[in-house]
Write a structure and sequence with these properties.
The protein contains six helices and eight strands. By secondary structure, it is an alpha/beta fold.
């Protein structure tokens, strides 16, 4: 499994340069960070600093720099868009409806992602099929019509245990929130710890139905697109 993921990353570096990895600084993303940086692959790593992240998540930036000697690039939302949303709707209007939540995600995550992906041929995510029902058929490689490029999910078939075995075996630094009951980590007001036996993404937008729990980074016109995977 690790060898197959390494091969995918090498293929991306060889055939899809320039390519970038979008890291949420959570466990899956630290596996990919470790693989990319230790192999010295020409794949840039960036993160979306939404302005609402946990302190523990932000602390990962310093830990990555200390451990790997690498500085993760940050993309932030446009201040005027954030100010307009808050002025019109309130700071926490995302609790009011799925539409309000997705608009907040659009401003804080989707628009900055577009800037981060400008000029790239491919991008990489840490998504896994086991994370949620909306990702159950996730391919390793797929077309991304929203950004006009190829998207790779090298950990698509990794289990939660696979991720943690890798981190433990290789002493990979990870977000302290994982030890506090947060298997999936997003913005602080939109993420809670989960109870034993709950789905790994149950703590993300916990007030919504499971089928709406995507922020828009992997959607087109409000719909999750998994129509056209690309053969490896």
């Amino acid at each position: 499994m690790i060898a197959a993921t390494e091969a995918t990353l090498r293929r991306i570096a060889a055939d899809f340069t320039p390519a970038v990895f979008a890291s949420s600084l959570a466990a899956e993303d630290m596996v990919l960070t470790d693989l990319i940086l230790k192999a010295k692959l020409p794949i840039a790593i960036f993160s979306l600093e939404t302005g609402r992240l946990h302190a523990e998540t932000l602390a990962m930036l310093g830990r990555i720099e200390s451990h790997y000697g690498y500085t993760v690039a940050l993309y932030r939302p446009q201040p005027e868009a954030v100010d307009a949303y808050v002025a019109q709707n309130g700071l926490n209007a995302f609790y009011d409806s799925v539409e309000m939540r997705r608009e907040c995600c659009r401003i804080r995550k989707v628009e900055p992602l577009g800037r981060a992906l400008a000029g790239q041929r491919a991008w990489i995510t840490g998504q896994r099929r086991a994370q949620s029902s909306t990702r159950a058929e996730l391919p390793v490689q797929e077309d991304d019509p929203a950004h006009g490029m190829v998207k790779f999910n090298p950990l698509a078939d990794w289990s939660e245990q696979d991720v943690w075995n890798y981190i433990s075996d290789r002493a990979v630094p990870y977000n302290a929130l994982h030890d506090q009951g947060y298997p999936s980590i997003g913005c602080a007001p939109c993420t809670r710890a989960v109870e034993p036996g709950e789905d790994v993404r149950a703590g993300r937008w916990w007030w919504e139905n499971p089928d709406s729990k995507e922020c828009g980074l992997h959607m087109v016109d409000g719909k999750l697109i998994r129509i056209k995977s690309v053969a490896a």
